[in-house]
Each structure stands twice: as structure tokens, then as C-alpha cells.
Design goal:
The protein is mainly β and 525 residues long. Among the domains are: 2-224, no CATH class; 257-287 and 435-525, no CATH class. 3% of the residues lie in helices and 40% in strands. It is built from 3 helices and 44 strands.
Length: 525
């Protein structure tokens, strides 16, 4: 709920983020006419958005100082570049091509920040650009009325007007309230929306993302009092860290990383198993005999024992979930198992619920929050999205192994090539690397271990070059901005941050197995 001090407490806003599926998020914040603003975008972004990146940030001292490097200078070190500003913002510690690819996964090639206080510099940007595949639905972020539109191919846009804490008069003007404007550009407008002063409710579909290939995105503006270049403001609300000091949901720019997302499981030579969260102590986990695989996904820890029993750690006790299991996966909202008789079972929500899906003749599988993938014995890759009752789609054939997230799918073909697709299921497949024996998707990173035991990682958009990380690698795992490797000499090493940062040996605990928070790589025979 947003409180307007000029009108006493009541005006309800539902806030929305533009998602691949119709998701509406609620959020709340105090508001005053002096130094705070309502929030028109909720944080954190839902997991569907995945590799979407917010390319613009508030043009305020907090932003300059938070992103570091250039205290007091207007615009943060940008996530895209304007040629004239390259010397100012360039990260000279990494190659130019990688700097651009990491800076902005869809390469807008500009420096961008919000206007503030009526001052807009030549390098200012009046909006937030949110990457999303073409045809992604775009929804109204607040109740309002149609204020205007423009039909102009890629630059087609729709404008809504809002009356916070007030009412509309017979002339459709805001009375006794605060006027706000939201603009949605680079969209295909729904024909029904082309009607002046039409009442719009939060969550109404306004249109879909205009097709721009890899650069498809929504340009979202918020203006106070009027839609003018001197009136654009930050849609996240007050100029402060939106969530736990993080700018990106994958925790790569966090002052205070979410401890649930930055945790590591250690299995000592003694057989004891410890969990260590960010800057926290080692916590001894309850003993479970004959474990062949652990997985740590946020608040869930699962284990598979030698007798093919699948367990979950619940209230500091191991709970048996099912038997005759040869593989399992967990997310915060789903559990999936593959039984000895090749039946895939998937469950939403609490583990005590009944299985929501059962599919036979499955060779391998993978799950994310909103996708399930199943590989048949003949090498056909099937994907189902959102509701588990939806229809399966065949997205590839000749598949020997695969992984997926809510925004990317990767597989190895029969030639050993790593193929990756981003966005909707009909997006183009891109050949990333050849001679691959293991691979992993993690946020904006793609990792591949080739048959020469070299680990290569791509960071940013799929056009970015792969960077050699290490040689003589036996095992590896990616999680948030970390990379973990076990080298053939038995040495564990970890790297956190840029692909060009140094490796650190993990020597503070003698471990025969180390697992980061997140999924594990897929190895192909």
C-alpha cells in the first residue's frame, strides 16, 4: 500500500514487472511529496526474467558511489557504452570485447542513467530498458487511463496517466492527487488500447515486445507531473538499494549478498558434511550414510544414497522422499525425480504434496521454476512451460545431454557441439563450442569443459567470446558469480567476480567434495 500524506492513507497499488508469463507482484513503500516516490517496478525481478538486465540506474550520488570507481561523477560506470565516454568508464582490467559483453548483455552501446532534479546530461537516459524476448506480454504497472500513443514501427509507444491519492474529474483530469505518467515503448500495442482516457487496471495487457532480435526489450519510463525530459524519475522508488544492496538478481553486484544464494557445502574426508553461508560459520549437517550426491538450492538440500533413496533436509532432519530414484533435482518451488523404470515425476510446492506430473520413457530431465525438460531415449528434447498441464514442445533432436533455465536452453548434439538458445522456445540455436564433454548454464554465464580438460566460460550475451578459465580440470561448478574447480592433481580452487580474477585455493578445510548453491554441470558420455 502507498500512503499519500496529503490525502490520508488509502490508495491501493499492485505493482507489476514485465514477465514472460502473466505475473503480478505486490510491493509497498511510504510516499511523500518531498523526497520519496512510489514504486512502479517490484524488486527482485521474478526468476523468469533471468538474464534480463536493467541497463539504467538513478542519476544520483547514491548510484555514483554505490557502483564505485567514479565518486561524484554523473552516471554510474555504465552497463553499456557511448564511444566518447569509453575512456571514462572503460574497465581496463579486461579485454574491450569482454568489457562490452559483460557491461550489457544486449549491447545497447551507450551510457545510461535517469534524469534527476530536472537535469539531463547528453548521456542521460530517461527510462529503464528491460530485456525480454519478442512477443513477451507487457502489462500496466498501475491503475490509470490511456494518455496517448504513437505508432511508429520499433518506436511505437503507449503512455498511461495515473492519479495517486486523487480522483478523475469529468474531463479525465487528476484532482487532489499526484499526477504520474508511465510510458511503454518498443511494443506492439493492443488495438483495444488505442482509445483516449480509457480506464486501465493494474495488470492489463497493453501489448507485446516489438521484435528486435537479440536486442528485443521494453523501454519503461516514469514521469512525475508530466511526461517531459525534465521529469523522468527512478521507477524503483526511493534512490536506495532495491533489495539487499543488490542491483542484479544473480547477486553479481551485491553490497550485502543474500546469504541463501551464497553458500557452500563441504564434505570432509572424515565423512562429515558442513554448510557455510556468506561470512557465516561452518554448520555441521545431520549424518546421512552412503550419500552419492548432494544438491543445495537456496533453502533446500537434497541427497541421493547408494540404495537409490532420495532425501530432503527438513528441520535439521533427513526425510525420505522416495525410493528407486536414479536422479533428482530441486528448486525452491519444485522437486523432480527420475525412477529406475524411467518415469519422471514432478511436484510443485511442499514435498508432502502428491506428484503433479508423471511422464514415462524419460532418459534424462531438467527443471527450473517455470520449465520442465525431458529427453527421450531417441534423443528428442521436449519442453513444457509454466503450468505442468500445458502441452509439450519438441525443441531439438539428436540431443545427448541438456540443461535449461527459465530463459535459456543448452544441449550437446551428436557431434559434440554445444548449442544454446535464449528466450522463447522458437528462438534461434547458436553453436557455442565444439568437442564438449560437460557444460552448465548459470545466470548470464555458459561454461563448457572440453575433452582436453580446459574450462571455458562465456559471460554476458551469447555473442560474447568464451574465456579460458583453467586447464587440467576434473570437475567444475558455476553459481552466482563464483566458479569452483577440482583440478586433476586433487586441488580445489574457487574464483569470485570477473572471469579475469585470480583463482584461490580452497585450503581451509580438507574436502573430498565441495558443492556450491545451485545446479551441477551436465556431463556427456
Amino acid at each position: 500500500m502507498i500512503k499519500n500524506t496529503a490525502k490520508k492513507f488509502l490508495s491501493l497499488f499492485l505493482f507489476i514487472v514485465f514477465v514472460l508469463n502473466m505475473l503480478i507482484l505486490k510491493t509497498a513503500n511510504a510516499y511523500s511529496l518531498s523526497d520519496e516516490r512510489p514504486i512502479f517496478l517490484a524488486w527482485p525481478l521474478p526468476s523468469y526474467i533471468g538474464v534480463a538486465r536493467i541497463s539504467q540506474f538513478p542519476n544520483t550520488p547514491w548510484t555514483w558511489n554505490y557502483l564505485g570507481l567514479n565518486s561524484g561523477m554523473q552516471c554510474p560506470p555504465a552497463f553499456g557504452y557511448l564511444e566518447a565516454w569509453m575512456p571514462t568508464w572503460r574497465d581496463t582490467s579486461i579485454p574491450w570485447e569482454q568489457d562490452v559483453a559483460q557491461a550489457d548483455p544486449h549491447q545497447f552501446q551507450m551510457i545510461e542513467c535517469y534524469s534527476a532534479g530536472g537535469e539531463v546530461g547528453k548521456n542521460g537516459h530517461e527510462a529503464t530498458d528491460i530485456k525480454a524476448p519478442a512477443t513477451t506480454p507487457v502489462f500496466a504497472s498501475a491503475d490509470g487511463k490511456i494518455a496517448g500513443w504513437r505508432i511508429w514501427d520499433i518506436n511505437t509507444m503507449l503512455v498511461l496517466k495515473h492519479c495517486l491519492g486523487g480522483t478523475w474529474n469529468i474531463n479525465n483530469e487528476c484532482q487532489n492527487g499526484t499526477k504520474w505518467y508511465t510510458t511503454y515503448m518498443h511494443i506492439v500495442i493492443e488495438p483495444a488500447m488505442q482509445q483516449m482516457d480509457l480506464d486501465i487496471s493494474t495488470g492489463t495487457q497493453l501489448g507485446t515486445i516489438y521484435p528486435q532480435g537479440d536486442n528485443s526489450h521494453l523501454h519503461f519510463e516514469v514521469g512525475l507531473d508530466k511526461r517531459d525530459y525534465a521529469n523522468y524519475v527512478n521507477p524503483w522508488g526511493r534512490d536506495e538499494s532495491p533489495w539487499l544492496g543488490c542491483m542484479w538478481i544473480d547477486q553479481t553486484l551485491c553490497v550485502i549478498p543474500n546469504p541463501v544464494l551464497n553458500q557452500t557445502l563441504f564434505q570432509a574426508e572424515s565423512g562429515q558434511v558442513f554448510l557455510k553461508k556468506f561470512f557465516g560459520p561452518f554448520v555441521l549437517l545431520p549424518k546421512l550414510e552412503n550419500v552419492i550426491e548432494y544438491k543445495v538450492i537456496e533453502n533446500r538440500i537434497g541427497a541421493l544414497t547408494e540404495d537409490n533413496t532420495f532425501w530432503l533436509l527438513e528441520n535439521s532432519k533427513w526425510t525420505k522422499i522416495d525410493e528407486n530414484v536414479i536422479e533428482f533435482q530441486i528448486t525452491n518451488s519444485r522437486i523432480a525425480i527420475l525412477s529406475k523404470d524411467n518415469i519422471l515425476r514432478v511436484q510443485n510446492g511442499d514435498w508432502k504434496n502428491e506428484w503433479d506430473m508423471e511422464v514415462s520413457e524419460v532418459q534424462n530431465f531438467y527443471i527450473s521454476s517455470n520449465r520442465v525438460g525431458a529427453l527421450s531415449s531417441s534423443g528428442e528434447l521436449y519442453i513444457i512451460e509454466n503450468d505442468l498441464k500445458n502441452q509439450w514442445s519438441i525443441v531439438a533432436q539428436g540431443v545427448s545431454g541438456f540443461q535449461l533455465s527459465d530463459t535459456r536452453i543448452a544441449y550437446i548434439n551428436l557431434l559434440g557441439d554445444l548449442m544454446v538458445q535464449e528466450g522463447v522456445l522458437t528462438s534461434e540455436w547458436k553453436t557455442m563450442l565444439s568437442n564438449v564433454k560437460a557444460f552448465q548454464l548459470s545466470g548470464v554465464r555458459v561454461a563448457a569443459l572440453n575433452k582436453d580438460n580446459q574450462l571455458w566460460v562465456n559471460h554476458g550475451n551469447l555473442r560474447a567470446e568464451f574465456v579460458l578459465q583453467a586447464e587440467n580440470v576434473e570437475l567444475f561448478q558455476l553459481a552466482d558469480n563464483r566458479i569452483l574447480i577440482l583440478q586433476q592433481d586433487g586441488t580445489w580452487k574457487v574464483k569470485q567476480g570477473s572471469l579475469y580474477d585470480s583463482w584461490i585455493s580452497v585450503s581451509y578445510i580438507s574436502s573430498k567434495k565441495i558443492i556450491l548453491n545451485g545446479n551441477l554441470p551436465t556431463f556427456v558420455d
